[in-house]
Write a structure and sequence with these properties.
The chain is an alpha+beta fold and about 200 residues long. It has helices at about 40-50, 105-120, 125-135, 135-160, 180-195; strands spanning about 10, 15-25, 30-35, 60-65, 65-70, 90, 90-95, 165-170, 175. A three-stranded antiparallel β-sheet has the order 1-2-3.
């Protein structure tokens, strides 16, 4: 169904992309390989477990060449396996053993927006759905991710980050304007060597 070299968007979650999707003759999901930030993947998995009245999904659409291809997942038959890809990021390749921590200052806002999209418009239904989600394993992950996002903003503020992009090294060196971590590290090493 999908080309091995392209990523295709899932209509219901625009930040989630698919590189492989296998369905049976009735378009029931058999296998899915999806790529996205941890938060959007968790939102997708959570929405599969919620009912429609709680903004859950019982089908989604993969966009291929402008066409919407429906896919019907049966949550009871799915087995999820997740992994994280750290070495090559939007911000460059991370040097081996560098002990790098990537802080995205908008992560808390993104998490809260994704959580809000999971909830129904009705305040009573939203409260019940939020309680159900947050009391389960996905809720534990969401709460941990929110705490990590808040701690990241606090840490960036505490070392005096004034503008973005910024790469902070050893809590004392800051390189502004260079989003590529490897190049920022080279600039710091070059500066250290010039002293």
């Amino acid at each position: 169904m999908l080309s091995p070299t392209q990523l295709f968007q899932i209509e219901e979650l625009p930040d989630l992309y698919v590189d492989a999707c296998v369905c049976d003759e009735q378009r029931n999901l058999v296998f899915l390989s999806a790529w996205g930030r941890d938060t959007v993947l968790q939102e997708f998995l959570a929405r599969l477990t919620l009912g429609r009245e709680e903004n859950g999904i019982d089908q989604f659409h993969v966009i291929v060449d402008g066409r919407r291809l429906p896919v019907f997942p049966d949550q009871d038959l799915l087995e999820k396996r997740t992994t994280r890809q750290f070495r090559g990021t939007l911000f460059g390749s991370l040097p081996e053993g560098a002990g790098i921590r990537l802080i995205q200052l908008d992560e808390q806002q993104r998490l809260e927006e994704q959580l809000s999209r999971l909830l129904p418009a009705n305040p009573q239904q939203a409260a019940a759905a939020a309680q159900k989600l947050l009391s389960g394993p996905e809720g534990t992950r969401v709460q941990r991710d929110l705490l990590e996002a808040q701690q990241g903003v606090t840490d960036a503020w505490s070392v005096g980050v004034e503008k973005l992009p910024a790469v902070v090294v050893d809590r004392k060196y800051v390189v502004y304007g260079q989003p590529n971590v490897a190049l920022a590290l080279q600039a710091i090493e070059h500066s250290r060597g010039a002293r």
